[in-house]
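User: Hi! I have a protein structure encoded as tokens and I'd like to know what sequence might fold into it. I'm fairly new to this, so please keep things simple.
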């Protein structure tokens, strides 16, 4: 959870992602993870998120207050960044399979 507009979490900088990933390795190695936040633009983190095997959440809840982008524009920008970083988008079927695997203890 990143934020540029509140006093919790890290700003969307590489050192914050590194800190979160180090913590994840200590408390839940191998767990699925994502970046998102409140009042923040996480698009600059997408190349590293893709490289590290994470997931991304964007949209109006996450966007900086007063953003001029629509929800669709946030998603389109994230799709472009993910594609450019060599990642692939999950389909609804991919997400359902992953959630089922997590519920069964297989992921």
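Assistant: Happy to help. Inverse folding works backwards from shape to sequence: for each of the 107 positions I chose a residue that suits the local structure. Here it is:
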């Amino acid at each position: 959870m990143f934020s540029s507009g509140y006093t919790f979490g890290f700003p969307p900088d590489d050192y914050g992602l590194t800190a979160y990933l180090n913590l994840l390795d200590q408390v839940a190695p191998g767990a699925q993870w994502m970046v998102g936040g409140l009042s923040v633009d996480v698009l600059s983190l997408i190349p590293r998120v893709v490289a590290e095997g994470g997931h991304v959440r964007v949209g109006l809840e996450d966007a900086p207050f007063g953003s001029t982008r629509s929800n669709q524009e946030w998603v389109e920008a994230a799709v472009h960044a993910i594609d450019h970083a060599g990642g692939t988008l999950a389909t609804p079927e991919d997400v359902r399979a992953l959630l089922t695997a997590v519920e069964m203890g297989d992921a």
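A useful reference point when you look it over: The chain has a mean pLDDT of 93. Feel free to ask if any position seems puzzling.
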